[in-house]
Specification:
Blueprint lengths: L12 H11 L3 H7 L18 H18 L7 E5 L5 H9 L4 E6 L2 H10 L7 E6 L12 E7 L8 H11 E14 L4 H4 L5 H4 L12 H10 L3 E7 L6 H12 L5 H15 L3 E9 L3
Bound molecules: S-adenosylmethionine (SAM).
């Protein structure tokens, strides 16, 4: 990492794996996670044939669904927090005009790739900035929409992120995000303290403690109105089978990667761990 102070670094072994695989020219990883790094949205989950092309489409479609929850329109300013390799910014760039787009990420290595692969078209402006979701290096009331696609569980503090999103949004602006949301019955188990090597495993620190009721309270506490609260778990399930195939193809032997993904799959299939898209509006 280049300019990131030690205290602000985030340890995400799965990104170390992806960056190495991309550098080595791993085509399967490039086509699956070279642009978006998220679970995807399978429009017809029962008919999924799990091709790489289908997964790429599902990845595109998740960004598209979060954009819908953010009510994105042409000629807006949009901030994508935890922007990864810039996939959602690229999606907006290719589908809207006159946009001012900013992607923020803690990890400068990911931003380097984003700057390389996402170039503005259609009178759009794009900037990728290093920064922490909980202390955004951005001005008050400067965005129409703030997005956080599948990353809020890594942030040090959800409430602080909501406050920051509220601060940088213009009145009437939207915050849209996707997240893994536990059923209340799962919550006591997620609080069990595991040894750090296990709890930080392959996906790094993930806080999946925010249930549907917690999101409602969080919105109320930070003065947002909930506009979208959508359970899309069923549209994410084929990804587990896709990942199993990909990890066999790429000979992934990292025990944490296999166990953590398998655990998430079991919990999701039992409907104990749900996947939601949320949209919140700042008052006008
Ligand atoms: C699962 S990836 C999602 C990436 C991207 N949103 C996408 O959908 O392709 C999670 C992202 O959150 C970023 N991240 C984690 N903690 C962060 C923080 N405190 N501030 C900003 N970004 C953070 C990671 O570096 C990573 O890019």
């Amino acid at each position: 990492m280049l300019d990131t102070p030690q205290s602000e670094q985030v340890r995400l072994p799965y990104f170390d794996y992806l960056l190495t695989a991309l550098k080595e020219g791993n085509v399967a990883v490039e086509r699956s996670f070279g642009r978006h790094v998220h679970w995807g949205y399978w429009e017809r989950p029962k008919q999924a044939s799990l091709t790489t092309e289908e997964f790429a489409q599902a990845s595109e479609d998740l960004s598209s669904q979060v954009c819908l929850a953010g009510h994105i329109q042409n000629n807006q300013s949009v901030l994508d927090v935890g922007c990864g390799f810039g996939g959602t910014i690229a999606h907006i760039n290719e589908n809207y005009q006159g946009m001012s787009l900013v992607g923020v990420n803690l990890d400068e290595r990911q931003l380097e790739r984003a700057r390389e692969i996402v170039k503005p078209v259609a009178s759009n402006i794009i900037e990728f900035k290093q920064g922490n979701a909980c202390a955004l290096p951005l001005l008050d009331a400067s965005f129409d929409v703030v997005l956080a696609v599948e990353c809020i569980f890594h942030f040090p503090d959800r409430e602080q992120f909501f406050k920051e999103a509220f601060r940088v949004l213009k009145p009437g602006g939207y915050l849209a995000l996707s997240d893994f949301v536990p059923k209340p019955v799962l919550l006591p188990f997620t609080k069990i303290k595991l040894p750090q090597t296990v709890s930080d495993g392959f996906y790094g620190k993930c806080n999946i403690l925010c249930g549907v009721e917690d999101y409602r309270q969080l919105a109320a506490k930070t003065n947002f109105a909930i506009q979208t609260e959508r359970d899309i778990t069923v549209n994410t399930l084929p990804t587990y089978r896709y990942l199993r195939r990909l990890s066999q193809q790429c000979r992934v032997s990292n025990v944490f990667a296999l166990v953590e993904t398998a655990t998430a799959e079991v919990l999701s299939r039992l409907r104990l761990l749900m996947y939601y898209i949320y949209g919140f509006q700042k008052p006008k």
